[in-house]
C-alpha cells in the first residue's frame, strides 16, 4: 500500500457514507426511515450521485434495506446480529495476528511499526479521521503478514461490512486513545513472535469495539433495534 493510497482524501461518496452511517447509528434516521436521495443530497450539500453510491455501500453493510421496485429504508437490525458479527470478526482478526506473529517479514515489520507510529501521532493530535485511515492500514498490514490469501479475503469482507459500526464506535469518548494503546500491545506481541499473545490481544481489541458499540446502542436514542 503506497503513501499516496494511505493518505488520499476521502471521496465525496465516502464522506456522505460516513455522515449517513452516523445519522443512522445515532438515531437521527431511525429504523424504517425512507431513504430519499434528493432529501439527503440537500441535507449533505451534494449531488444525488454520491448519495446513491453511499446508499449502495451501506446496503452492502446491512444498514439500509434495498429491494426491487421499493424505496430504500433504514434497516431494522438487531443489536445481537451486529454483536455476533463482531464476535466472528474478533476470531478472524485474532487468527490473522497469530499467523502474522509467525510469518511477518522484515519489510512487514517496518511497515507495521510505521503505521502504528503514524496512528499514535494522529491520536495525540485528536485527529479522528486521520487516525482511522491509518488504523485501517494497520489492520490491513496484519492481514497481509498472515500470508493466507483466503483468510485475508474473508477477514476483509467482514471488516468492510462492519466498517460503519467500527468507525461509529471509534467516535465514543476516549476510544481513540484506547485503540491506540491496544494497537501498540498487538504490534509488540507480533514483533516478538508471541503468536498466542498476539491472537488474544487482537481478539480483545475487536471485542471491545463491539462492547463500546453495544453501550452506545443502549443509550437513548437507540440507532438499532434491540433484539429483546
Automatic annotation (TrEMBL):
A Pfam family hit: FCD
Domain HTH gntR-type: 10-77
PANTHER family associated with the record: TRANSCRIPTIONAL REGULATOR, GNTR FAMILY, TRANSCRIPTIONAL REGULATORY PROTEIN
Protein's UniProt name: GntR family transcriptional regulator
InterPro entries per the UniProt record, alphabetical: GntR_C, TF_FadR/GntR_C, Tscrpt_reg_HTH_GntR, WH-like_DNA-bd_sf, WH_DNA-bd_sf
Parts of the chain that traverse the membrane: none
Key words of the record: DNA-binding, Transcription, Transcription regulation
PROSITE patterns: HTH_GNTR
Amino acid at each position: 500500500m503506497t503513501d499516496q493510497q494511505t493518505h488520499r482524501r476521502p471521496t465525496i461518496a465516502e464522506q456522505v457514507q460516513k455522515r449517513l452511517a452516523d445519522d443512522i447509528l445515532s438515531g437521527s434516521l431511525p429504523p424504517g426511515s425512507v431513504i430519499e436521495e434528493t432529501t439527503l443530497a440537500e441535507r449533505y450539500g451534494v449531488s444525488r450521485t454520491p448519495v446513491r453510491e453511499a446508499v449502495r455501500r451501506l446496503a452492502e453493510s446491512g444498514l439500509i434495506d434495498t429491494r426491487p421496485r421499493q424505496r430504500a429504508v433504514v434497516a431494522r437490525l438487531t443489536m445481537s446480529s451486529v454483536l455476533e458479527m463482531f464476535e466472528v470478526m474478533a476470531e478472524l482478526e485474532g487468527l490473522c495476528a497469530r499467523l502474522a506473529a509467525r510469518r511477518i517479514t522484515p519489510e512487514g515489520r517496518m511497515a507495521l511499526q510505521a503505521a502504528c507510529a503514524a496512528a499514535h501521532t494522529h491520536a495525540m493530535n485528536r485527529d479522528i479521521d486521520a487516525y482511522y485511515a491509518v488504523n485501517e492500514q494497520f489492520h490491513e498490514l496484519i492481514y497481509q503478514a498472515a500470508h493466507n490469501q483466503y483468510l485475508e479475503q474473508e477477514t476483509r469482507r467482514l471488516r468492510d461490512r462492519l466498517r460503519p459500526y467500527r468507525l461509529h464506535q471509534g467516535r465514543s469518548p476516549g476510544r481513540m486513545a484506547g485503540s491506540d494503546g491496544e494497537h501498540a500491545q498487538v504490534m509488540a506481541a507480533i514483533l516478538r513472535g508471541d503468536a498466542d499473545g498476539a491472537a488474544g490481544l487482537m481478539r480483545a481489541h475487536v471485542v471491545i469495539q463491539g462492547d463500546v458499540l453495544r453501550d452506545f446502542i443502549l443509550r437513548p436514542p437507540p440507532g438499532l433495534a434491540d433484539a429483546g
